[in-house]
Amino acid sequence: MPSDLPPTSREHAVPDPGRAESSADLNIWTVPASILAGSLIIGAFQAWALLISLAALIWLGLIHRRYQSTLDDALDRTRRSVNNALDERRTTKQIGAILEAADVPVVATNERGQIMHANRAASAILGSGRLLVGEYFDSLITQSTVKEIELLARSGESGHARLELPAAGSMRVFAVAAEPNPDLRGAVCTFTDITELSASVTLKADFAANASHELRTPIASILGAIQTLEGSAKDDPVMGPKLISMISSNATRLDLMVKDLLDLSRLENPSTPTQLIEVDLEEIIERASSPFLSVCQRRRLTIDTRIDPKAATILTDDTLLELILRNLIGNATKFAHENTSISIHADPIVVEVDPNSPLPKGLDQPLGVRIGVRDEGVGIPLSHQARIFERFYQVDEARSGSTARRGTGLGLAIVKHAARSLGGGIRVNSVHQEGTTMIVELPRCVASHASSTDDHSASAIPADG
Length: 465
What we know:
Blueprint (H helix, E strand, L loop, with lengths): L6 H7 L3 H27 L4 H54 L4 E4 L5 E4 L1 H6 L11 H4 L3 H11 L4 E9 L2 E12 L4 E8 L1 H36 L8 H30 L8 E4 H9 L3 H7 L2 E6 L5 E4 L1 H18 L5 E9 L17 E9 L21 H4 L10 H11 L3 E7 L3 E12 L7 H5 L7
Parallel strand pairs: 7-9
Antiparallel strand pairs: 1-2, 1-5, 3-4, 4-5, 6-8, 9-10, 10-12, 11-12
Helix pairs in contact: 2-3, 7-8, 8-13, 9-11, 11-13
């Protein structure tokens, strides 16, 4: 019985492949070595034995060469395996570093939906700064469509969805892409912020709708007047002139709107160049005011200009500056009370550069300019002030008093974009039924002059307008 065998006998009963291989290797070396040793001993007495020892020595050399080659192959395989492992580890670290540096949130889950990796952006945006590894995806994201595409990705199907969530103090829109991850039998989800793109698409759709509405109104009036002239009012001495006047005013409105649309389109094109020259500010103000002299005379308005001598000459694009002033002065003449004055101030100040409004090349002066256009008119209600720079947005007719003063609704939008093209911006100070001040600030356009003027100039236009 095997259990009755002594320990040594039981060991021999179970063959050891490794030991057998070692024994075979040893036998391969032992046979020629024994022959070599024996032939050398015999060779001391018989010369022919030395031939046998030489043959045994050659045999040993061949065995050594064979095993050296085998050993070199084994070392080469081991070296390649180690290098491959190091390369994979290095690549993994590099990919991890890239994912950590990316500002796009990336989340990887396993087959149970548990988060196995989340980069820094994912922790900051999706997890409010906490570590997400170990959490479950469906507890992090509650929107059903996003959870569904992550679940489908775990089963091998790609998916896309849209996600809205609060981030950085505002609602952000993300495009979520879920791809299968065969290594983890899970999914990899990326969250791309498309808030600005989404807002741009919405803005374009609103713009198209508003533009078509604004264009349709005067066109309908013109067509209606023409049809009436061709019909019942063809020979009417009273209605004829009225209808012709209606056609003329609506055609003028269409012409103004087309011009404003062209100006706005040009300003919104980032490739539109700015041509910087030294400009006499008083001359530009006079040029921008000249189209409104007849309106001022009819409504008994005066335009008072006060320009600080240090800001009399500025470096700017005269076309854009005239466009800004023409729209602001036009609004002031439209909404000012009769027998009042419109004041225009210009002072040198230090203007901080807005990172969202990059400076045109060549604007490198130490100071900027603040231009204020103030009217003593109906003012703008506080509830409307945040939206007056939107395209086609107009305060209700109570502000203008009649539709005769109704503009295209594009003037302040044009001013905003023109100011941004010069690296500046516009803001409003207004008190309802007391007056409005539009303030444009343009950076780096006033040459030299010591900054000792800053304190004086900063208070030239009061904060309340």
